[in-house]
Amino acid sequence: MSEISEPQRGRIDPEYDHRRADGVDEAALETLLSEYAIGRDDHENAPAFVIRPDDVQAVIRLLRDDAGFDHLSCLTPQQYEDRYESILHMTKYDRRTHEVTLIVPLPTADPVCESAEPVFRTADWHEREAYDLVGIEYAGHPDLRRILLPESWQGHPLALDYDQDKPQVVSYTEHANPLAADHRVTESDTMLLNIGPHHPATHGVLHLETVLDGESVVDVDLDIGYLHRCEEQMCQNGTYRHQIIPYSNRWDYTANLPNEWAVARAIEDIADIEVPAYAQVLRTMATEFGRMLGHFLAVSTFALDVYGDFTAIFQYGMRDREVVQDILEDLTGQRMMFYFFRLGGVCWDLPEPRAAFVEKCRDFLDELPAKVDEYHDLLTGNEIFQIRSIDTGVLEPAVAKEYGCTGPVVRGSGIDYDIRRDDPYGYYDALEWDVVTEDGCDNYARVLVRLREVEESAKIIEQCLDLLEDWPADERTVQSNVPRTLKPDAGTETYRAVESAKGELGIYIRADGSNSPARFKIRSPCFHNLSALPEMAEGEYVADLIASLGSLDIVLGSVDR
């Protein structure tokens, strides 16, 4: 690999000061990384260390084994005029506020970085995406090829020299015979089965290239990207103040209010925007209703996957989801793409008459325990469902961490990780509620987590309603005074995350002094959770593969972005 010259280390800050004494022990990190760090930088959320491209594996292994940083949360690639950068965001499953950022500068002429995949399996998809969209290559990666765009695509869409007007010709062989002699292996005991990309059990356009030995799954290669719209570039072209948050509703469109919060939290961090307490209560309540939207859909569609129950569970799930959508439509004015969040707060207060809206919410919450009991009677207590889901799709805790899994997927493997509690934001730390975990590690455990989380969301909403009712009328500030045009200081960087219905939804932003971000990176929980599917499916039956996929509750709009 090429050495990094001094001019390419322009991010080093010799006057760096320790401003996160309440978080990770930076002095200990400096000592630990003294052999490898060639400079320091300051990110809003975490201490940042500049390292050489051929030291990546040594550094992240040292951080994992000696300092407990067992969660490679995100990898952000980007290009400057004089260099590329590969940025690794690391934290801990048992201590979310302990964060560290590793910055790997790479020369423009030869952007090659050592792969992190041998240390963290989740780096496999991370680095393929970085290569696909930005053009960074990763030495030692086991399968460095495009992941979101076709293999024949020319150029890298997020590279500075990318020609957006150049027509693309995606080549294919017309009328080719897939059973041609050179596609067959003599006396092979396996066969290739294509599932998707237009299969009803793929939860969107997803292609599973599945190798079978009889009915047992030998291997699964996931082909994604059919819904890729380069949302990151679209957000980079939008302004902070009004044009980015609306895009977020399109990522996980089944439970999209947390998406809005992820964007708002990151921008508010780099622009130093305060959110009034009353607005935080409104945000928290609305987001928990949004979490219910996602979980009702996840449970009902999973019932379709495992035993085709359309008339009962799916209809029950849609019944309850419609009630929540009615409530959110009253609150936000929209039925699906809500756009309720604004920087510094929300767009408006509870609808008038307030008492009627609160009563509607409380009526739903009063009926919810009986409805959850119905789900357990019809679903979790169903013998067919239990046979199809218990001890299938097993995801051991260590494997879940390797792939960066979060949300109900990782909590169904017994890992007690929830950003709402572990890195508090909004009004969560002032409310009484519990993080739900199950130790089954299987498809059944993930369903139990979602049903129990619906009950926890109800607790949170109930407390928020109490607060909103009692809040003095003259103190109901729904939005702070935010400048019409935001221009955060050039070089300001942050990675902030929220707990969506699917898991950790993170946003990395780098400001350049203009009113639009120079880099906007989306960390999708669905992207990471889906990457673990081959580990869950290997050795199981094809039918179990479908069940395992359904248990992940992916949304391809979030996977592909």
From TrEMBL:
<keyword id="KW-0472">Membrane</keyword>
<dbReference type="InterPro" id="IPR001268">
    <property type="entry name" value="NADH_UbQ_OxRdtase_30kDa_su"/>
</dbReference>
<dbReference type="Pfam" id="PF00346">
    <property type="entry name" value="Complex1_49kDa"/>
</dbReference>
<keyword id="KW-1003">Cell membrane</keyword>
<keyword id="KW-0830">Ubiquinone</keyword>
<dbReference type="InterPro" id="IPR022885">
    <property type="entry name" value="NDH1_su_D/H"/>
</dbReference>
<keyword id="KW-0511">Multifunctional enzyme</keyword>
<dbReference type="GO" id="GO:0051287">
    <property type="term" value="F:NAD binding"/>
</dbReference>
<keyword id="KW-0520">NAD</keyword>
<dbReference type="GO" id="GO:0005886">
    <property type="term" value="C:plasma membrane"/>
</dbReference>
<comment type="similarity">
    <text>In the C-terminal section; belongs to the complex I 49 kDa subunit family.</text>
</comment>
<dbReference type="InterPro" id="IPR029014">
    <property type="entry name" value="NiFe-Hase_large"/>
</dbReference>
<feature type="domain" description="NADH-quinone oxidoreductase subunit D">
    <location>
        <begin position="311"/>
        <end position="561"/>
    </location>
</feature>
<dbReference type="Pfam" id="PF00329">
    <property type="entry name" value="Complex1_30kDa"/>
</dbReference>
<comment type="subunit">
    <text>NDH-1 is composed of 13 different subunits. Subunits NuoB, CD, E, F, and G constitute the peripheral sector of the complex.</text>
</comment>
<protein>
    <submittedName>
        <fullName>NADH-ubiquinone oxidoreductase chain 49kDa</fullName>
    </submittedName>
</protein>
<feature type="domain" description="NADH:ubiquinone oxidoreductase 30kDa subunit">
    <location>
        <begin position="50"/>
        <end position="167"/>
    </location>
</feature>
<keyword id="KW-0813">Transport</keyword>
<dbReference type="InterPro" id="IPR037232">
    <property type="entry name" value="NADH_quin_OxRdtase_su_C/D-like"/>
</dbReference>
<dbReference type="GO" id="GO:0016651">
    <property type="term" value="F:oxidoreductase activity, acting on NAD(P)H"/>
</dbReference>
<dbReference type="GO" id="GO:0008137">
    <property type="term" value="F:NADH dehydrogenase (ubiquinone) activity"/>
</dbReference>
<dbReference type="InterPro" id="IPR020396">
    <property type="entry name" value="NADH_UbQ_OxRdtase_CS"/>
</dbReference>
<dbReference type="InterPro" id="IPR001135">
    <property type="entry name" value="NADH_Q_OxRdtase_suD"/>
</dbReference>
<dbReference type="GO" id="GO:0048038">
    <property type="term" value="F:quinone binding"/>
</dbReference>
